Amino acid sequence: MLNLKGKQVYLRALEPTDLEFLYQLENDTSIWEISGTLKPYSKKVLQLYLENAHRDVYEVKQLRLCVCNKEDICIGLIDLFDFDPKHRRAGIGIVISNPADRNKGVGAEAIQLMCDYAFSTLDLHQLYANILEDNQASIHLFEKLGFERIGVKKEWIRTSAGFKNEIMFQKIHTNES
User: Fold this and answer.
1) CA 107 → CA 51, 141, 162, 177, distances in Å?
2) Which UniProt keywords apply (predicted)?
């Protein structure tokens, strides 16, 4: 049986009580560059999102889980997106909300838990991540977890400072029968 619990964090489904956390995170302009957000989200829109968060990954082609610490506090979100069951692949992304919680292994543990889930339960063949070239912490994190750099999308993301390159990483599940 798959365990979504690690030593420092565990992954769980979104709950109605996550509204305030989601509202703060989605409206944090410091992460809009990596999330592709262009405008603030209202609590009403996020409430509707939470009401539909139970929908099946095969139907909505994405899965968002909360990253929680040992004290049962939600400290971030981890996503599978662009879920493609025919080609057995999906994108993966993570955000740890508070900078004080970063660089302590919680992101690595959460990504490993999600990889294990994607490869064993969803039977995916590969995961990929898109990371801005100046996000050295994320680049290091994904490389440490066995994701390989496979290409660069030149001037892919438009920011207030100009265009940035996005690096694509891929992890292929090699323990298949």
Assistant:
1) 26, 8, 28, 29
2) Acyltransferase, Transferase
The tokens for 154 are 């030149």
Enumerate the β-bridge partners of residue 95. Answer: 77
Residue pointed to by tokens 């390989």? 148
- 96-120 pLDDT tens trace: 999 899 999 999 999 999 999 999 9
* Pair 33, 157: CB distance under 8 Å: yes
The amino acid occupying position 133 is: E
CATH H-level, domain 9-124: superfamily: Gcn5-related N-acetyltransferase (GNAT) (3.40.630.30)
List the chain domain ranges. Answer: 9-124
Rounded CA separation 58/51 (Å): 17
